[in-house]
Amino acid sequence: METRQQERGQGHIRTGLLDPEPVTEVDEEMVSDVDLNNTLTDEEREEILSELTKLEEDISTLRQVLASKEKHHSELKAKLGITPLIEFKQNFNRSWYDMQTSTAYKKTSETLSTAGQKTSAVFTTLGTAISRKFGDMRNSPSFKSFEEKVECTVSNIKLN
Q1: What values do phi and psi take at 4, rounded to 5?
Q2: CB count, 10 Å around CB of 77?
Q3: Which residues lie across from 6 on neighbouring strands?
Q4: Do the beta carbons of residue 112 and residue 120 sit within 8 Å?
Q5: Residue 156: how many CB atoms within 10 A of its CB?
């Protein structure tokens, strides 16, 4: 079934359910002119109602068939020992694998690995620099003088 919309001021009719441009306003004159009850003959109305009834019956039948198929589906899974938990695990594992093999995951993993290596190198360099500074500080005349004073104080405390 097609819908028709008269575009105002352009004089042509568009057909189809998915127009490329959204309707932004309702033309009140057009809405009041369209009255489905007056445009259908009694015969057309009966035909449409009959078709509607048939469609509703078809939908009901399809729902019953689907319910039957779903029941049979679950019975077969039960015979195979496939539980909802097993299905969840399989779906999770499949999704995890799909994610790990994705290009985005691989690029992210590589980037984080590189960042980790660079961070490790920075901390190693920093640790070396700090160790060197402590070594330099320990060999400085100020530290030697402080070290001697502490040793002298400890000796005096032990003697007393």
Answers
A1: -120, 140
A2: 14
A3: 13
A4: no
A5: 9
* Residue 155 token pair: 């000796």
Three-class secondary structure assignment of 28-78: HHHHHHCCHHHHCCHHHHHHHHHHHHHHHHHHHHHHHHHHHHHHHHHHHHH
Residue whose token pair is 């015969």: 43
pLDDT confidence of residue 95: 94
**Residue 35, pLDDT score:** 54
pLDDT at 60: 97
What global pTM score does this model have? Answer: 0.36
Amino acid at position 97, single letter = Y
Closest among 40, 47, 113 to 105, alpha carbons compared: 113
- Determine the Cα–Cα distance for residues 42 and 39; give it in Å rounded to an integer: 10
Question: Consecutive 10-residue runs of the chain (160 residues): their mean pLDDT?
Answer: 42 47 54 61 95 97 97 94 92 93 90 91 90 83 83 84
Would you call 82 helix, strand, or coil by DSSP? coil
Is 19 in contact with 5 (CB distance < 8 Å)?
Answer: yes
The amino acid occupying position 54 is: K
The gap from C-alpha 150 to its chain's centroid, in whole angstroms, comes to 64
Distance from C-alpha of 3 to C-alpha of 14, rounded to nearest angstrom:
8
